[in-house]
TrEMBL record:
Pfam families: GMT-wHTH (PF22560)
NCBIfam families: tcm_partner
Alphabetical list of InterPro entries matching this protein: GMT_wHTH, Tcm_partner
This protein's name: GMT-like wHTH domain-containing protein
Domain called GMT-like wHTH: residue spans: 214-286
Length: 303
């Protein structure tokens, strides 16, 4: 899909550099054959690079010592080996860099309690956090364990210097069983906003065998937790805004940028909620076109 889109867009095909890496030699050869025979591949200014190496501390050091161009990286470890806070930090450190990584919950949840792979778990969660998880998880039911593990991973990423984290979980088409998680991490609000909108626009129905995605339902989690906030329904938004901005005056753009962090609501959700509040007489706004709510609209909340 990336190759097809890149080839079809003249502006992109002259600028994009694509790097694939896999530890399995058979996978690498198969990928090379596919890329070489891909229709229109000769139109790309830079031919995709395909490498065969293990992701380890050496790879982290290499990324840490080079300045990356704006990069969107997809990290897909087989289980957990090689996946670490250091690796994620190394591909995000430069301007314009975002990352999505595949989080194999079933493998990692088993690994947390396994002494043999403790160093891998410490590299992913941090030593203090993994010690707390090993003490807490045996007391929890399976559903709560999932929420606790994902919440702790997101918090570890945020504490490591990346303010914006979005976790999504995917279900199998044939059951409600969780298939996997994808974790998006970025340092800039714009990337966070774009990814949230993209995921919100995607269908949650099964399409060509691909399962649905959702934020983790987390009604049992503390109200201040990331997963609880990300699971709140749209119906809550009007009340949240009124409570948080009582007595304040603010532009729509500023409100959205400071308030939407760690919440599931998109820009459109905020505009819809504010239009409803305006009709209900609960806010006062500067002049704007009917049924629209631009970024520059000034909003005054009653005390």
């Amino acid at each position: 899909m990336i190759l097809r889109y890149s080839i079809s867009e003249p502006l992109i095909r002259d600028r994009i550099k694509i790097l694939f890496n896999d530890m399995d030699q058979a996978n690498v050869q198969s990928l090379k054959n596919m890329v070489d025979s891909f229709p229109g591949i000769e139109k790309l200014k830079y031919k995709p690079q395909i490498e065969n190496s293990e992701v380890n501390e050496k790879v982290c050091t290499e990324f840490e010592n080079i300045k990356l161009i704006p990069t969107f990286s997809f990290v897909d470890p087989w289980g957990y080996k090689g996946l670490s806070l250091r690796l994620i930090n190394s591909v995000l450190k430069d301007w314009g860099c975002d990352s999505v990584f595949f989080f194999n919950y079933s493998r990692i949840s088993m690994g947390i309690m396994n002494d043999a792979v403790l160093p891998h778990m410490e590299a992913l969660f941090g030593k203090k956090r993994i010690a707390e998880l090993r003490e807490r998880l045996p007391k929890e039911n399976p559903e709560k364990k999932e929420l606790i593990i994902v919440e702790n991973l997101c918090n570890a990423l945020r504490e490591y210097g990346h303010r914006y984290v979005l976790p999504f979980r995917f279900k199998s088409c044939n059951s409600d069983r969780i298939s996997h998680h994808l974790i998006f991490v970025t340092k800039h609000f714009k990337g966070y906003d774009i990814m949230k909108s993209i995921m919100a626009d995607e269908s949650s129905d099964c399409d060509e065998g691909i399962g649905s995605f959702e934020y983790n339902p987390a009604s049992s989690m503390p109200k201040q937790s990331l997963l609880f906030q990300l699971s709140r329904p749209f119906e809550d938004l009007k009340g949240i805004i009124l409570d948080d901005y009582r007595g304040r005056t603010i532009l729509m753009k500023e409100l959205y940028q400071e308030h939407s962090i760690d919440k599931p609501f998109t820009r459109k959700n905020y505009k819809d909620a504010l239009l409803q509040l305006e009709k209900e007489g609960k806010i006062v706004t500067s002049k704007h076109k009917k049924n629209t709510f631009s970024e520059k609209v000034k909003i005054t909340f009653h005390t």
